[in-house]
């Protein structure tokens, strides 16, 4: 469990597991029941969620960043190695595996995205593999790495979350990056006016220009909501699924301290949930990728706008 | 669940990884795969071609074999015919030679007979003369025939 010298309550245990290792600009003051006293405003590691709240936006989740970048590097290094070794002969071992993934992504992209854009396939590949790797951390028993981190840090309050996709910052940032690409390509392909027309002359449209002008605000409200909903749903779907999955793993982990019988039962539950979760993490990575491809295809579709111009 | 700078950090990392992937990963692997695809397609086409070639070669071989058989049959036939002809010719020659030898022998025999006849003829004359002489010697009486011989001598 969490530490040697103190035994946390179940609530504390769960909360501890759901808190990030946060480094941020802490305003002067006393936090965490006096455990953390900041004499002057400055950058420091937060000791408790109260301090994290006080930091506001000027903070960074070191664990999320380290794990996501680390896993991103794992992805990039494996695939770069494969790219260097790629040849037209018979592929073996790891190269074969990488090629299977590439082929799968390539097929999915070609089915969903008919335009020419060299960015989309690598984007889809990065999303799929990176999110999959980050989700995969969910399958590591919840206490292993956090306990190791606490032992290394020598601090029983040390926060260390290893699943980056259970941090909404991570998932939303990917969602919003996709969103920016979407808007960028929309404007690039349809022109700024085309993009505005798409937002204002859709879905309600008549041939009477005055009625159209009246419909513009309604259309704009509907369309902008659906547009904004895309990145948020993209990010929150992934976050929600993984957060819930992680939460269940943590709840199962609390059973281990509740007696031998319940502990053994918890072991089976964890195994079952982990096996089910293999499906969930793959599916979530896949869903994120497919939706990205679909949104990109929508951004490139010029025909959709044509029907309003005649 | 605080939204903070992590969102920006992660966005930067995301963009970096996507760009890296686009520049240094994706094209290399897909190119290699496309090239392999082409090689495999070429290989399959070559195999198809080889199959067809084999088929053709088999057909050609069968045809050649058939032709060779026909030819050999024709040769054997011709050889047989020729052999028969040679035998026939040899027979004819032998017959002619035999005839010639026989004729020559016959001629010789006739000549020999003739010679023998001549010899005999000559000897008959001699014998006749000898006989006649013997007879004459016995019959002739010098006295009796003196006048006749004399008469003969007188005619000379």
Rg calculated over all Cα atoms of chain A: 24 Å
Compute the average pLDDT of chain B.
90
Instruction: Tell me the β content of chain A.
Output: 5-15%
Q: What integer value in Å does the Rg of chain B equal? A: 63 Å
State the secondary-structure class of chain B.
mainly alpha
Tell me, briefly, the overall form of chain B: rod-shaped
Number of helical runs of chain B? 2
The biggest sheet of chain A amounts to: 3 strands, antiparallel
What composes the largest sheet of chain B?
none
Distance between the termini of chain B: 193 Å
Average pLDDT, all residues of chain A: 88
Oligomer state equals heterodimer
Verbal overview:
The complex is a heterodimer of chains A (310) and B (156). Chain A has 10 helices and 5 strands; from the N terminus they run H-E-E-E-E-H-E-H-H-H-H-H-H-H-H. Chain A has helices at 10-17, 49-55, 62-85, 93-112, 120-136, 144-153, 168-200, 209-254, 260-300, 303-306, and strands at 22-26, 29-31, 36-38, 42-45, 59-61. In chain A, the strands form 2 sheets. Chain A has a 3-stranded antiparallel β-sheet with strand order 4-1-5. In chain A, strand 2 and strand 3 form a beta hairpin. In chain A, 36% of the residues are buried. The mean pLDDT of chain A is 88. In chain B, 95% of the residues lie in helices and 0% in strands. Chain B is built from 2 helices and no strands. Chain B has helices at residues 6-139, 142-155. The termini of chain B are far apart. Classes of the chains: A mainly alpha (310), B mainly alpha (156). At the A-B interface, helix 2, strand 5, helix 3, helix 4 and helix 5 of A face helix 1 of B.
């Amino acid at each position: 469990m969490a530490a040697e010298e103190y035994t946390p309550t179940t609530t504390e245990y769960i909360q501890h597991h759901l808190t990030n290792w946060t480094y941020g600009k802490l305003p002067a003051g006393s936090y965490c029941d006096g455990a953390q006293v900041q004499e002057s405003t400055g950058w420091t590691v937060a000791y408790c969620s109260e301090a994290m709240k006080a930091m506001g936006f000027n903070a960074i989740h070191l664990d999320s960043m380290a794990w996501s970048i680390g896993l991103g590097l794992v992805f990039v290094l494996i695939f770069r190695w494969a790219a260097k070794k790629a040849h037209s002969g018979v592929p073996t071992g790891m190269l074969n595996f990488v090629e299977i993934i590439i082929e799968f992504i390539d097929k999915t992209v070609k089915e969903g995205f008919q335009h020419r854009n060299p960015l989309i396939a690598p984007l889809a590949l990065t999303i799929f593999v990176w999110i999959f790797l980050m989700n995969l951390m969910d399958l590591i028993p919840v206490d292993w790495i956090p306990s190791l981190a606490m032992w290394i840090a020598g601090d029983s309050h040390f926060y260390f979350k290893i699943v980056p996709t259970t941090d909404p910052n991570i998932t939303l940032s990917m969602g919003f990056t996709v969103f920016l690409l979407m808007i960028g390509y929309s404007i690039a392909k349809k022109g700024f006016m085309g993009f505005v027309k798409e937002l204002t002359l859709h879905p309600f449209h008549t041939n009477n220009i005055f009625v159209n002008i009246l419909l513009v605000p309604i259309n704009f409200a509907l369309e902008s909501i659906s547009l904004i909903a895309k990145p948020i749903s993209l990010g929150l779907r992934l976050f929600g699924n993984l957060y819930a999955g992680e939460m269940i793993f943590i709840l199962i982990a609390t059973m281990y301290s509740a007696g031998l019988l319940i502990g053994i039962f918890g072991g089976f539950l964890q195994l079952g949930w982990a096996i089910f979760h293999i499906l969930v993490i793959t599916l979530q990575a896949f869903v994120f990728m497919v939706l990205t491809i679909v949104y990109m295809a929508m951004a490139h579709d010029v025909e959709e706008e044509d029907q309003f111009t005649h | 669940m605080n939204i903070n700078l992590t969102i920006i950090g992660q966005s930067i990392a995301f963009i970096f990884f996507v760009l890296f992937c686009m520049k240094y990963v994706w094209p290399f692997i897909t190119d290699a795969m496309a090239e392999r695809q082409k090689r495999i397609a070429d290989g399959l086409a070559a195999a198809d071609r080889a199959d067809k070639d084999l088929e053709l070669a088999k057909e050609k071989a069968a045809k050649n074999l058939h032709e060779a058989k026909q030819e050999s049959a024709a040769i054997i036939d011709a050889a047989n015919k020729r052999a028969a002809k040679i035998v026939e010719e040899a027979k004819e020659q032998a017959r002619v030679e035999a005839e010639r030898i026989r004729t020559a022998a016959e001629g010789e025999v006739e000549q020999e007979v003739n010679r023998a006849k001549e010899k005999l003829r000559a000897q008959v004359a001699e014998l006749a003369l000898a006989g006649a002489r013997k007879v004459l010697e016995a019959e002739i009486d010098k006295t009796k025939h003196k006048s006749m011989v004399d008469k003969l001598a007188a005619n000379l």
